[in-house]
Amino acid sequence: VEFVEMEDWDALTRLLATSRAELAMTGIAVTPDRAAWMVFSNPYVDETFAFVVKDHLREEFSSWASIRDLGAFPVASPNLPYFIAPVKARAPELKFQMVDTMKQIEDGMKEGRFGAIALPGERGSVLTLLNPKYTVVVPEPGTIKIPLAYALASRDQDWAYFINTWLELKRRDGTIDALYGHWILGKQVGKRQPRWSIIRNVLHWIE
Questions:
Q1: pLDDT classification of 92: cutoffs 50, 70, 90
Q2: Residues whose CB falls within 8 Å of the CB of residue 71, separated by 6 or more in sequence, listed in order
Q3: How confident is the model at residue 9, as a pLDDT?
Q4: Which residues are CB-neighbours of 7 under 8 A, at least 6 positions away?
Q5: 95-99/134-137 β-pairing
Q6: CA dist., res. 88 & res. 94, Å (int)
Q7: What is the pLDDT of residue 147?
Q8: Which pLDDT value is given to residue 132?
Q9: Listed residue (23, 50, 51, 26) closest to 39, CA to CA
Q10: Residue 47, class by beta-carbon neighbours within 10 Å (0-12 exposed, 13-18 middle, 19+ buried)?
Q11: 117 CB contacts (<8 Å, ≥6 apart)?
Q12: What is the rounded distance in angstroms from the CA atom of residue 159 to the CA atom of residue 167?
């Protein structure tokens, strides 16, 4: 397997159009606009729309009603109009500031420039580990799901059929659930063994 780093969406378009890359991963959200120019596999997981907010704003973003009360509050967001539309339908006065890369979001959080970021909760949880002044909030009632899939080269349906078959096998044998549990939910696959130490393994002072 050869891995090719994807710098931006323009690069992804060129790599897939020229078959320089056969498959793009990971965390690519499926949207109608993207489906118009690339082939997607079946979704392998759904992310949950959330807001990553500064701690003192947790309550304000806990419900759509309280978000509407904020009026024209500025929110940073990746440029995904398909998923921003249902958010605007729930809170039409929010002012979205589009960002092109996750690095821009990370830098803005570190510098404290963003009071709120519209992100999948699964990705936001990782960012809050690096930026403890922020927390993830999924507003209620109702959740917005964001399907993720692999983007495939050209329009090769045989290749898409193979990838979809492989994904279905991995879903049914528990691989996808196990990976999601480990990497997203933080579950340990097996019992963690204590690190080797002189006190335990040589001197036997502790169990």
A1: very high
A2: 93
A3: 76
A4: none
A5: unpaired
A6: 7
A7: 93
A8: 86
A9: 23
A10: buried
A11: 51, 52, 53, 75, 76, 77, 105, 108, 109, 124, 127
A12: 12
- Rounded CA gap, 148 and 41, in Å? 9
Q: Predicted confidence band at 1 (pLDDT cuts at 50, 70, 90)?
A: confident
- The one-letter amino acid code at 93 reads E
Tokens of 163: 């990838």
3-class SS of residue 58: coil
Angle at 76 between CA 71 and CA 77, to 5 degrees: 115
Q: How far apart are CA 158 and CA 152, in angstroms?
A: 11
Q: Cα separation of 145 and 29, whole Å? A: 10
Could you give the CA distance from residue 32 to residue 30 in angstroms, rounded to a whole number? Answer: 7
Spatial distance between the Cα atoms of 119 and 80, rounded to a whole number of angstroms: 10
Cβ atoms 197, 186 nearer than 8 A: no
The tokens for 130 are 């690096």
Question: What does the pLDDT average to over 142-155?
Answer: 87
The owner of tokens 């959080």 is 109
Q: Which two tokens stand for residue 183?
A: 């990497």
pLDDT of 148 strictly over 70:
yes
Residues 25-58 have pLDDT tens digits of 878 899 888 888 888 999 999 999 999 999 999 9
